[in-house]
Amino acid sequence: MNGIIQNIFVFSSLTIAVVFLVRKFVWTPKKKTTKTCGSNDCGCH
């Protein structure tokens, strides 16, 4: 009985870790980079 619960915890934590890594590195929303050249800011910083 304890082995089944332990396996459930291991697989759920593995799934959470994989989902976190996929969302962080693979499925990142594209950020809009607007370069506005004004009097003080050229958009390069």
Number of strands: 0
Using only C-alpha atoms, the radius of gyration works out to 22 Å
Beta-strand portion reads under 5%
| Low-confidence runs | none
Number of helices: 1
Layout of strands and helices, then pairs:
Layout: H1 2-26
Would you kindly provide a written description of the structure presented here, covering whatever features stand out?
This protein is an all-alpha fold and about 45 residues long. The chain has one helix at about 1-25. The longest helix has 25 residues, at about 1-25.
Quickly list its features.
45 residues; mainly alpha; 1 helix
Summarize the model shown.
The chain is mostly helical and 45 residues long. Helix content is 56%, strand content 0%. The chain has one helix spanning 2-26.
